[in-house]
TrEMBL record:
The protein, known as: HlyD family secretion protein
Record SUPFAM superfamilies: HlyD-like secretion proteins
Coiled coil: 95-122
Domain spans labelled p-hydroxybenzoic acid efflux pump subunit AaeA-like beta-barrel: 237-326
Keyword Coiled coil carried by entry: yes
Domain of life per record: Bacteria
Keyword line: Coiled coil
Length: 349
């Protein structure tokens, strides 16, 4: 009887100070961001460079598609860009040439103005001499004709200058159009380069490949699933679905003990976050309790648990079942064993 009383006392003390604060569930599973990879372009599978369950590194090629057509498209786009660049260079040269022609036309106008002024002065001088009887009428008529010719030459030079200036906006517009074609050709080349790069499907991160459905020579299309890459253990976590009645004392950062059905040591972790809604709300058909007969069902809330680094977690795989126990005590570092709790209660620690 004495042993039973002592055992009952120790058990009751442990329950009051430790056990009732331990929240556990076996509705827990290992999770990880699995990347399902497929082609971004249409083509035939040329080579499969890995096997199922191979360990790969970020950027490692996994599957290669036939790239003959896409390489030809890239080369054609590069040629079109070279032509467009040459067109822009030609148009800029034409604009520079037109500026030179405008300068030459302005010089011709200045020369015509000077010649017109000289002819006007000569015509006035010889006309005065002829009217006063000191000069011949022939010289007066000749200088008058020279003045008219100079005025006509000036108008012609001015017209040439105006025509040269009027042609400049046309050339600038053509240059802008050539620049647009160059930009379009550059974008086409960038797209062709991207499509060519997509003939190689690479691993987005370090991990293990699996679920390979690609077959050599098969014709594939964008969006088709060809291979998957699972993350390594250090990038995995556990999602535990606790009942809503277990969440009252659960907080971020609380310590967690994790055991797995696959075996291995018990791992340590911590509560990282609680889901913003119950699991039922994220299901395909959420329950609508406002219709029909009502049956109260205890809901579950997904809790994300981070696995502490530096542990033997090499066996972990996404999807494995786990058992989770969260210590919700205010001081999770307090003694948690049967005798440790008793010693803490008696103040012997």
């Amino acid at each position: 009887m004495l042993g039973a009383l002592v055992g009952g006392g120790l058990g009751g003390n442990w329950w009051m100070h430790v056990g009732r604060f331990q929240e556990s569930t076996d509705n827990a599973y290992v999770q990880g961001d699995i990347a399902v990879l497929g082609p971004g372009i249409e083509g035939d599978v040329a080579a499969i460079l890995v096997n199922d369950n191979d360990t790969v590194t970020a950027g490692q090629p996994l599957i290669r598609l036939v790239d003959t057509e896409w390489r030809a498209r890239r080369d054609a786009a590069a040629g079109a860009l070279a032509q467009a660049v040459a067109g822009t260079v030609t148009n800029r040269a034409r604009i520079d040439q037109q500026h030179a022609q405008i300068a030459e036309a302005d010089a011709q106008v200045a020369q015509a103005v000077a010649e017109r002024d000289r002819a006007v002065q000569n015509a006035a001088r010889y006309g005065t001499l002829a009217n006063s009887g000191y000069g011949s009428r022939e010289n007066a008529d000749r200088t008058l004709a020279d003045r008219l010719k100079a005025e006509a030459a000036l108008r012609s030079a001015q017209a040439v200058a105006e025509a040269a200036r009027a042609a400049l906006p046309v050339l600038e517009s053509e240059c802008a159009a050539a620049e647009g074609k160059r930009a379009e050709a550059a974008a086409t080349l960038a797209l062709a380069e991207r499509n060519l790069q997509q003939t190689v499907i690479s691993a987005p991160f370090d991990g293990v490949v699996g679920n390979r459905s690609a077959q050599l020579g098969a014709h594939v299309r964008p969006g088709q699933n060809l291979i998957a890459v699972a993350p390594p253990p250090e990038r995995q976590w556990v999602v535990a679905n606790f009942k809503e009645t277990q969440l009252a004392g659960m907080r971020r950062g609380q310590p967690v003990e994790l055991s797995f059905d696959i075996g291995g040591p018990v791992l340590r972790g911590r509560v990282e976050s609680l889901a913003p809604a119950t699991g039922a709300q994220f299901s395909l058909l959420p329950p609508e309790n406002a219709t029909g007969n009502f049956t109260r069902v205890v809901q579950r809330v997904p809790v994300r648990i981070a696995i502490a680094p530096g542990q033997d977690s090499v066996r972990l795989r996404p999807g494995l079942s786990a058992r989770v126990e969260v210590d919700t005590r205010a001081d999770p570092n307090a003694p948690g064993g049967l005798f440790g709790a008793a010693a803490a209660t008696l103040g012997l620690n």
